[in-house]
Amino acid sequence: NAGVTQTPKFQVLKTGQSMTLQCAQDMNHEYMSWYRQDPGMGLRLIHYSVGAGITDQGEVPNGYNVSRSTTEDFPLRLLSAAPSQTSVYFCASSYSPPKGTEAFFGQGTRLTVV
Amino acid sequence: SQQGEEDPQALSIQEGENATMNCSYKTSINNLQWYRQNSGRGLVHLILIRSNEREKHSGRLRVTLDTSKKSSSLLITASRAADTASYFCATDAGNQGGKLIFGQGTELSVKP
Q1: Residues A79-89 pLDDT 10s
Q2: How far apart are CA B33 and CA B11, in angstroms?
């Protein structure tokens, strides 16, 4: 049982390049989310999804796009990378209530934009 | 802005001592959760306390919740070197699709 799988683990981009961070879960969770973690700032929510075909913005959505075509996958797209997007990105998934909202996290993608 | 603020930002104790971390939040919640993050790893769920609960235990962990003060505390008893990690509180308003709002975390160092 893999849980939440993120790829790649590390990535270096040049300013202006685009890329997609992949996230897949095999627990049949309805909810999926993307967070970024910066030193001293905890985790900030970028985008989230309550089910296939439904996405919404979090606290810091600018510069990022998401889609949810299947229950399992929730890719995060950086349209035109900027140095301010240098961060560690975490994907998380959880069941919808009343099953519970405990979130399961992937191991993270460390992104550097130069 | 972030929902939770944690105190202290860093805590250093000796093995065997208790560690207490505090979390304050701003808006009404459905539940509050605590997570642990080892260096360079993802977050791991520790414990969830619902808004109608005041205290919860899990092994060496004890969580309290005071909704009137919008605050929670996490107590780790008889700490071990393996407890060294960052600890985060996260609040769930209950009506936003699993949207968790995290605090900035407390960095705990347990010295052997």
Answers
A1: 999 999 999 99
A2: 20
